[in-house]
Design brief:
Two copies of one chain form a homodimer. The first copy, chain A, is α/β, with parallel strands linked by helices and about 475 residues long. Helix content of chain A is about 35%, strand content about 20%. Chain A folds into three domains: about 200 residues, 2-Layer Sandwich (BirA Bifunctional Protein, domain 2); about 110 residues; about 90 residues, Anticodon-binding domain (Rossmann fold). In chain A, strand 15 and strand 16 form a beta hairpin. The longest helix of chain A is centred in the middle third of the chain and has 20 residues. Chain A starts with about 45 loop residues before the first strand and ends with a helix. Chains A and B meet through strand 1, helix 1, strand 2, strand 3 and helix 4 of A and strand 1, helix 1, strand 2, strand 3 and helix 4 of B. Strand 2 of chain A pairs antiparallel with strand 1 of chain B, so a sheet runs across the interface.
Chain lengths: ~475, ~475
Amino acid sequence: MWATFFRRSFSTTPAASPVIYSHRSGAKQKKKGNASALKTPRGTRDFLDENAHRKSTIRTIEDVFKCYGGTELDTPVYELTDVLLGKYGGEANKLVYDLVENDGERCSLRYDLTVPFARYLAMNRVSKMRRYQIGKVYRREKPVMTKGRYCEFHQCDFDIAGVEEPMLPDAECLSIVDEVVKKLDLGSFTTRVNHRSLLEAVLLQCGVPVEAIQSVCCSIDKLDKEPWKKVSEELRLQNNIPSSVVSELERFITFEGENTDMIKLFREKVGGPQATASIQEMEVLFDYCNAFGVNVTFDPSLARGLDYYTGMIFETVLEDGACGSIAAGGRYDNLVHSLTSETRKPFSVPCVGLSIGIERIFSLLEQKKKNTKEAVADVFVASPQKSLLLERISVWKKLRDAGIKAQFERRNKSKFLDQLQFCEANDVKLAVIIGEQESKEGVLKLRNVATREETIVPEGSLIDEIQKRLVD
Amino acid sequence: MWATFFRRSFSTTPAASPVIYSHRSGAKQKKKGNASALKTPRGTRDFLDENAHRKSTIRTIEDVFKCYGGTELDTPVYELTDVLLGKYGGEANKLVYDLVENDGERCSLRYDLTVPFARYLAMNRVSKMRRYQIGKVYRREKPVMTKGRYCEFHQCDFDIAGVEEPMLPDAECLSIVDEVVKKLDLGSFTTRVNHRSLLEAVLLQCGVPVEAIQSVCCSIDKLDKEPWKKVSEELRLQNNIPSSVVSELERFITFEGENTDMIKLFREKVGGPQATASIQEMEVLFDYCNAFGVNVTFDPSLARGLDYYTGMIFETVLEDGACGSIAAGGRYDNLVHSLTSETRKPFSVPCVGLSIGIERIFSLLEQKKKNTKEAVADVFVASPQKSLLLERISVWKKLRDAGIKAQFERRNKSKFLDQLQFCEANDVKLAVIIGEQESKEGVLKLRNVATREETIVPEGSLIDEIQKRLVD
């Protein structure tokens, strides 16, 4: 039933001003009328990583993933079409890119990283695993670049497969997101959690007919952007839910309070074994979150990603409201089984996972001007005369061999002043200056770029002298 | 003409015993008769990075690339089909994977990283750039897993675009490969270099008809695996080259000697402005190589990647002969222009580049057992009693917040001995032991895993004590 929801699709509110990754020249891609104009395919873009922020962000996330026991898995960019078919719900299934058939094999580009992970588990009959994966996924949507909606974009997932202490892996997922957002210093944020089974039980108890649950969830999910008044109207007019049921729903869905109050309300007011079990799971989850030092808010209106989810679901939103969710996830205990159910030996593994919206994070960091341009070099090998290029290379090579981060002037004829200005503009600490006269005498000049002091150094002690100065 | 050569295609000699990346359980993918069996698409595989060697290899390569001024560029996995068409030569063009057309846009998976780079330069009219890219490329070939031939595999490229000191960028490419192979400690290796224009001039001078140049190159290129006798037979019988021409060819192609001898021979024996200019370029190249401390061998039989190449070409081979080339590249001055020649404003940039066969390197490192399993943690939080899971998490959280690499026992009921054995088996340095009695008294036990010594530590000074011990 929960068919039109996508697992882990981030809400489409755009980041305040989406960053266009263009070349350093600042030249934007020109629109051209003719068919032979050069461009990237619709909805894709080039990423030029001039600044170190993309790589350092990913490194930070990977370090957290590893501390939670994660192993990296890299799956093919395309899967057999049969593996992907029917896993994403009606609308989403249409958004899968197909490859032209190859020797009778139907393949499609991956739509997310979750189904490939489930395929890996099912194919290798792996019953326990913590894996992370950072990779591109593909959606044949109408791209809206200004809203940050692309056909090719990154996902950054961590998933825990296997039977562990009940709700501990769920809490670990929340703890991972908490750590990542704090480590990346993205500002205040809220993590809202809910339970898919509980939500279903609540809707049924309030009198929502089984066949309307999906559309009611769709409406309820809008509560993070719209007031209850508007949502309740939609429920009455579009979903034909009787007013009595809507006001019954209001009691549960819009209830705000401490997590313990919520637990109490649900325990008192929602009956049946499904609800009871879910409520208990949420209690255990909150205990673990407490131990992990993670703040979460029980939000009974959260209804995301229902095609996969079977248990806890969550979404993390930055409080400045500039962009939608930056992380989301939940428990999906039946996906692996659904992949094997047609084979002779069905295989099942419970799973829970999370997805971090790294592209959104890149944009945010770029806006916050947190770009840390990597130092070009510690030492620059320069020369005032032309035709000393080979000498510059030899000296540079010695520095490289000694493990010193160095660059050299690559132009044969280059104004000396330009070379010194390059050093100053790029925060290079030392310049090694090779002159014709000095070269004959077996000495070099070492220049402190900041103070502009120059010292004559014998060639033989150059490395020692530089290493001493770089340490100071 | 040179149509059947692929740029930068590595020779297909397999690595001694190709490594299958399977799950840690060691379970291999089972062959199944039924169509619904789960598998990855033909010629693709999952990579599980249990060991740190893949990542650390890439990090080493990236560090070298950056020291040569490289900026990372990430392009889409697919390009407009028109961009790729006709760039790879007759046979290779058939190996491009097409996507099912999307709103009238014909796209294909990228076949290498060079044409996308040239497209980027042409599209943004970039006249100077040093970029590196590590990514997957796609070839619709018949996969031969045992020979390491896949449909999806990685390429690792560095390219220099723009006008610089003649032959300096070419020498830098050779120096990069030299540094990478030495840094990765892959054993002795040889880098053979040649010049595409010179080779063409030699063939014409020896009397090879223009229309036979392509097939003659094909035969000559086999000289690294077969003796001259066999190649000369092929030239006579298959290519219909007269015996007189073949023996004339032998003089040049099989000549062995110092690079300076080769230069001398070609200068004396091959005429015309094309040959003269190429020979001079090679001389300058050798001077730069000398300054960079890079050994190269002038090999007039090297004939690789001729579809793109316009100048210097090279190939690096490990001497133990276990696998084919692990790096290759060359100069391609016309590719960017060929992409823009149909638009109103043609644009041209000379380029030279290299490609490192990282997958081959991964296999080699795996065989050499150079896998450095990353330490699971420095500290493990254990407890002898069950039901202390929340306490373990709280202590672990404190360690994490202090930046200590820690893990905790995740099972509620776990044998204490198993926990201690885990620490010993995984080289964990310290174990924090939480006991019920100690917990009440506000103290913890700190165990040195190697010496098995245990000390009682007050909770408040745990972090200090651990940090002190980890430094020691």
